Structure formats: structure tokens, C-alpha cells
Amino acid sequence: MQPILDISDLRKSYGDGFEALKGINLQIEAGEIIALLGPNGAGKTTLISTICGITTATSGAVTVGGHDTIRDYRAARAMIGLVPQEINLEPFEKVINTVRFSRGLFGKSPDEAALERILRQLSLWDKRDSQIRALSGGMKRRVLIAKALSHEPRLLFLDEPTAGVDVELRKDMWEIVSALKEDGVTIVLTTHYIEEAEAIADRIGVIAKGELLLVEDKASLMARMGQKQLDVQLSAPLEAIPPLLAKYNLTLCDDNQTLTYSYDTRAERTGITKLLSDVSAAGLVLRDVLTRQSSLEDIFVGLVHEEKEPS
Ligand SMILES: Nc1ncnc2c1ncn2[C@@H]1O[C@H](COP(=O)(O)OP(=O)(O)OP(=O)(O)O)[C@@H](O)[C@H]1O
Asked: Domain named ABC transporter: which ranges (predicted)?
């Protein structure tokens, strides 16, 4: 099946020569939620702006639903909704007029039923005649989403939808995103929050210094997180792993005194009991044991760190 979004070798250098995107390749299937995680300045906003035609790419190509975002800009843009980071609403305008106006900007014919459906979906229907300035911060964010949905796009970009919002509002936002997915909208969101990516994304991309360092199914990332390491510290150094312990796939650390064993915390049997009894049967004396777990955060920090300080 043709991906709804296809980005190939996308590069962006700003006027001062700074390369904000260094050859991004990414395909997104219809109906997915993908979270792009990255530190400040990684290039997330630049990537979204380039796809949406707000910024011009230096080279590379992007298609949305098969439409090239440059040659076939209108058709591509009509399929995209963008929820920007900043709240940029007209304070004296009524909610419904704001959303109606956005729809008009895309040249879509008026459709009051569509507006009602969007406003109801975002729990804004009761507020349709309120002025924007009278709304809470959370409601204003909902209006931004309603505006982005006003022309019924198939692909929605949310640029840091929960930056600086409280925990309750963040959860609200996550529910909205899940409901949109149920409706068949494909969602790309950028975030600094690892737990946000964990909570709602199907796939996670890590971006740093203009490069996409990893794109992976959340499930397989979680499987990596399920891996734990057991460090068995011995009272004396070893020359090599004894043959009796060969079957455990152990690593002997640089100090020659620590054996590391990886296991899956979710497996029925971790093999730890048997390992420890075989360690003793091999005549080794334990000094200490400790366990470590790699989290998505470790994976993320490790990747971004490697990128910052290439060895
Ligand atoms: N108009 C511009 N001119 C020059 N450099 C720019 C411009 N816009 C962005 N940059 C630079 O490009 C890099 C990527 O910025 P971008 O806003 O895309 O990052 P981001 O990942 O969205 O960061 P944040 O999480 O802080 O929003 C940054 O180093 C930024 O300073």
C-alpha cells in the first residue's frame, strides 16, 4: 500500500548555512500515530514546516497521499492539518467562526454538519458561541485542533501538543489523539516527553541534530525495555568464562570480575536461579549481584548522546 506520507532524503539549510535537516527518510502508513522525539533544536518543527510548505526544502521530496508537496502543493496541503506549537487565535472571535473561517481558507464548501461533528468531537460544541479570550488554555488548544481539522484532513501534525500543559490536560490530549486515530486520521506528533510517546504512539522516531536516528515500533522498543541485565560480581578475576556457563551467553566485563547476563523480565523463566547455582557449581565465589534495566529513556539518551559526541 502507498504510504500516506513519504519523505525521501529531505534536507534543509537555513540562509546562514545551518543544516537543520540532514537527509530525512520516513514513510508513514495511513492510520498510524507516530511520535517524533527529540531535544530542543533537533529539527522537529523544521521537518513539519517543510512538509506543510511553510518552509522550503533545500533538496529531497515529500509526497502526501501520492501528491508531491511542491509540484502538487494544493492537493497535498488539502490532506494535511497542522496544529502549531503556539496558540495563535483571534481573541475576540467566536469559536465556531474561527473554525468556519479555517475551512473556508482551504476552499472547502461550507458544511455546518461537518463543523458540528468536529466541535462535538473536541467537546467544544457547548462553547461554540464563546469568544476565544474567554476560554481556558486547554480549550484554546482544542480550538487549534478543531481549526486544523476544519477541512477534514487525513494527516494531522501536532507540534508539541502538550508542551507546558498540566498532567490532566496532557491526558485529555492523549484521549483526543486516540479518538482521531479511531476516525482514521494519521497523526504525526512531536514531543519532548518520552512518556507521551510511550502512551500514544504506534511508532517512535528519534530525531537529533537534523537526523532521524531511529524509527521503530513502540512494541519492539518496549521489548528492548523488557530486557534486564544481571551483573554477577565475583570475588576473584577470571581468565575466561568457564565451560559450564557457556550456555548462558554471558559477557565477561573489562574488569574480568563481572559476568553480565541479559534476560527478558516478561519471560516465564528468567534462568537466574539456574545460572546462580551453576556459577557456584563452576567453583566461582560471588561478591555481589545487581540488576539493571534499559528504559526508552536510556535508549533515547544513549542515541542522542552518541550523536553529540561521535566516538
Ligand atoms: N529561520 C531559521 N533560521 C536559522 N536557523 C533556524 C531557523 N529556524 C530554526 N533554525 C535552527 O534549526 C534548528 C532546528 O530547529 P527546530 O525549531 O526545527 O527544532 P525543534 O526540534 O523543533 O526544537 P524545539 O523542540 O525547541 O521546538 C535549530 O538549531 C534552530 O536554531
From this structure: 5-234
